[in-house]
Specification:
Layout (H helix, E strand, L loop, with lengths): L1 E3 L9 H4 L4 H4 L20 E8 L6 H22 L2 E8 L4 H13 L5 E4 L3 H13 L4 E3 L16 E2 L5 H15 L2 E7 L2 H16 L3 E8 L7 H9 L4 E5 L4 H12 L6 E4 L4 H5 L3 H4 L4 E4 L8 H13 L6 H20 L4 H8 L7 H5 L6 E2 L5 E2 L2 E6 L14 E7 L1 H4 L3 H4 L5
Parallel strand pairs: 1-3, 2-3, 2-4, 4-5, 5-6, 7-8, 7-9, 9-10, 10-11
Antiparallel strand pairs: 11-14, 12-13, 14-15
Helix pairs in contact: 3-13, 4-5, 6-7, 13-14
Length: 423
């Protein structure tokens, strides 16, 4: 597997090299003009992949884990399918404008065949919309906003992880049984907004009341005002729909106020790495959360994958590693099946495709398939904190256990409810 971190513009697409106006147009004026750049006719045994994600700032640990997982998948695919895969990385800096420039550069200068990456859903939507407009395949690797496979869906933008509504439906039953009244604190951007909407719908469908909500700026250093509002609302449960490592800050500030003594706490999306920054006693406050995958998933293939991540990453295995792996695995396999990297050809091999690669085994079995709205339907889990004495760190951190597994079809939104029409 080759790796390239350069963006010096040494390589150029033939179509750009021969266009006298290309220099004047620059990277900001190419939208709508790149349909001839996105594959078709080249040798799919020699692939170049662009991975743009957060490699600095508050989401760096999330972005790097995804890259590590994608590289491991590339190694496996090279051995299994006899292909060569070059991985070109770029830092989106958690900024939609910077991300747009990075993905344009990956396509026009590094000549990648298809793209993936993104942690922040706002960043992913910016990159995915541009890629789709220009007939370039893009996997929104770790972005859970319902908008990606819903109201803002795009023909060649795919959601390889569970959406917010899938995770909300995963924990909905437990939240409904745990408390009658809820207050929701959410990160005020597309991921948090769609999370709040999905969790509210799940609670209200179960006959429970959402007494109030607070939209917290992201990122933020002080969640105390929103925690105070939740306490003053006199509710039984508090839902913390807060992104990234900010959840660690909010949880720590909440614990210092003692909110876990009087309220059920629920987080609709568990990212193990968030809690590893707390001590085990404080991490144990988690009552219930939804999860796409993590070291809590205990089966032979999952444990083997986690052990390999331990050997190939500086970050203990958690969900972002698998999301990077899935994105690379599914993109490359689609290109090989199509014998083409043209976005339309790859889409023909993805939609309605039943996943049968080792990804399915890592997830513990169950149906996995791509729907018409470019959502990968897959099993999800509810997770709870282990007793402190059962939290282990060797050979990798395992602080949580799965309490229930859900079939993807049982938690995914009906297609008619997504607001996505790609017909």
């Amino acid at each position: 597997m080759a790796e390239n971190h350069s963006h010096d513009g040494v390589r150029r697409r033939t179509v750009l090299r021969g266009a006298s106006a290309a220099g004047a147009v620059g990277l900001t004026g190419l939208s709508g003009c790149l349909s001839s750049l996105s594959g078709g006719g080249q040798n799919v045994s020699d692939l170049s992949v662009g991975y743009a994600t957060s490699l600095s700032g508050p989401f760096a640990v999330f972005g790097q884990a995804g890259v590590d997982g994608a590289k491991m998948a590339a190694t496996d695919l090279e051995e299994e399918l006899d292909v060569s895969i070059e991985v070109n990385t770029a830092d989106t800096e958690l900024d939609p404008s910077a991300a747009l420039q990075r993905i344009k550069r990956l396509v026009t200068e590094d000549e990648v065949d298809f793209t993936m990456g993104g942690v922040s859903s706002s960043v992913a939507l910016k990159m995915g919309t541009w890629a789709s407009d220009n007939s370039v395949t893009y996997m929104a690797t770790g972005s859970h906003s319902d908008a990606i496979s819903g109201s803002s869906c795009a023909e060649y933008m795919y959601q390889p992880t569970a959406s917010n509504s899938m995770l909300a439906n995963t924990i909905g039953e437990q939240m409904v049984s745990a408390a009658d009244s809820w207050y929701l604190i959410y990160s005020d951007y597309t991921w948090g907004q769609t999370a709040q909407s999905a969790v509210t719908s799940a609670l209200e469908a179960g006959g429970k009341e959402v007494v109030g909500t607070s939209a917290a700026p992201f990122p933020s250093d002080d969640y105390t005002p929103y925690l105070n509002e939740a306490e003053n609302a006199d509710v039984d449960g508090i839902g913390m729909l807060i992104a990234g490592l900010d959840l660690r800050k909010a949880a720590s500030q909440g614990m210092s106020k003692g909110i876990q003594d009087d309220h059920t706490l629920a987080m609709h999306q568990l990212e193990d790495v968030v809690y590893w920054g707390l001590d085990k006693e404080n991490a144990g406050i988690l009552d219930t959360a939804g999860q796409v995958w993590g070291p809590a998933v205990d089966n032979e293939a999952s444990n083997e994958f986690a052990e390999r991540i331990t050997e190939n990453s500086d970050i203990d295995p958690y969900v972002r590693h698998l999301l990077g792996y899935i994105s690379m695995d599914q993109s490359v396999r689609a290109a090989v099946r199509a014998d083409s990297t043209a976005a339309e050809d790859m889409r023909g091999e993805l939609i309605e495709h039943e996943v049968s690669s080792k990804v399915k085994d890592i997830k513990g079995g169950g149906d996995m398939y791509w729907r018409e709205n470019n959502q990968l339907v897959q099993p999800t889990y509810t997770v709870e904190a282990r007793p402190q004495e059962e939290m282990s760190d060797d050979p990798y951190s395992r602080w949580f256990s799965t309490s229930e597994t859900f079939a993807g079809d049982d938690v995914v939104r009906p297609l008619d409810d997504t607001g996505c029409d790609l017909s």
